[in-house]
UniProtKB/TrEMBL annotation, chain A:
It holds the Pfam family GATase. This is Imidazole glycerol phosphate synthase subunit HisH. GO terms for molecular function: lyase activity. Residues 4-201 form the Glutamine amidotransferase domain. The keyword Lyase applies.
From TrEMBL, chain B:
Its EC number is 4.3.2.10. It comes from the Bacteria. The gene is hisF. Pathway: Amino-acid biosynthesis; L-histidine biosynthesis; L-histidine from 5-phospho-alpha-D-ribose 1-diphosphate: step 5/9. It is an enzyme of class 4 (lyase). Belongs to the HisA/HisF family. This is Imidazole glycerol phosphate synthase subunit HisF. Heterodimer of HisH and HisF. The keyword Chloroplast does not apply. Keywords: Amino-acid biosynthesis, Cytoplasm, Histidine biosynthesis, Lyase. InterPro entries: Aldolase_TIM, His_biosynth, HisF, IGPS_HisA/HisF, RibuloseP-bd_barrel. IGPS catalyzes the conversion of PRFAR and glutamine to IGP, AICAR and glutamate. The HisF subunit catalyzes the cyclization activity that produces IGP and AICAR from PRFAR using the ammonia provided by the HisH subunit. NCBIfam families: hisF (TIGR00735). The active site is at D11, D130.
Amino acid sequence: MVGIIDYGMGNLLSVFKAFEFIGADVEVFNDPSQMHRYSHLVLPGVGAFRDCIINLKEKGFVEPLNENVLAKQIPILGICLGMQVMAAKGYENGNFNGLGWFDAEVTRLTPDQPSYRVPHVGWTEINSSKNSPLFKGIPANADFYFVHSYYAKCADPSQVAATFEYGGNFTASIHRDNIFGTQFHPEKSQEYGLRILENFIKIE
Amino acid sequence: MLTKRIIPCLDIKNGKTVKGVNFENLRDAGDPVELAQLYADQGADELVFLDITATVEDRKTLIELVRKVARALNIPFTVGGGISSIQDVSALLHAGADKISVNSSAVRNPELVNTLANEFGSQCVVVAIDTRFVNNEHIVHTHGGRKPTEIKTIAWAKEVEERGAGEILLTSMDTDGTKNGFALDLTAKISDLLSIPVIASGGAGNQEHFTEVFTTGKADAALAASIFHFKEVMIPDLKLYLQNRGIAVRM
């Protein structure tokens, strides 16, 4: 069963509904001690990095996350801020430590031309740069819905699963082992977004 | 590459979609959830719901509507109308909205923009500006366009950006409902001045108007209502038309 982590941030209904739509067994849960019940975890999130990591800590999610994701290798998908918080550090409104699952820093988008707006809002094509199971069957020109001002700058290029061009190349998706993240919102990206969620629940 | 967004707008009154000319003479334009679903299927990039009456008794209807829309859709949508507090925003986001839009309440209390951006992130906060050209000046209007203020539109757009707005929804009341095209000069001026996305609204009458607003008007997104509701322009046709004119759109 897919477990969507409710730690007080993010549009859980959309994510829940999208999994329900593809026929997944899915639940939203807010009790960290129940995390072991799920075969797949989803970490959503909108808002700021600082609030995200503080909320995860205060609600007692950090230890169970490390245990289930790092030790027990349960597949997890971070979406938007939920992906960013998997990085080592975040620089939104200060300097904060994230979950540290990726050798990455979350920093402000810096397109090289002013015609590229920040926040980056809208549908943008991505380039999958490695054979991530998440992108199986996604055509090369598929657009996904983004809405963000910060991105995860990865020190290890092998952890970047997809990028997007926006006056420079930025991280659209990260992957290592059983840990996946998308900067864009698959739950808001219609057909191809749903396919990504389908791919995710097939990962064992 | 970022694509230009086509955004149908559903003006909501008592749970129904309505449309007027220059903000008046409202006509019924159908069930909002059905329309929303139709637009999503046709390739709309986002939707905007504006509760144009936004009275207290309508508030519950709106939340219920937002919940229904969220269940029916998997594209992003923005909800606006009568939002003036963290609690209002929280309730709408929990019901499934992705972004909220503030207008009169931000003019009354500009600090609200900072508050909401800090609490929910800039990407969630759209500031809607209704503007009309009065005595040689673009002036901000509030209360669904009924009340003029003393505030100059361009300066206000800059101010809300600095306060943390994530996008501007710029509606020209001079062009709204006329079908004579968007307010290109003003949209371009604001777009040049700001680094956040600008959604142009008001005046769409044909496909060429969209080409103009994305080129001359430098808009990031274009919003329209009646031409979509009354099927004068179909979204798939519009997107093909734009693509043929070299404008990047999601197909």
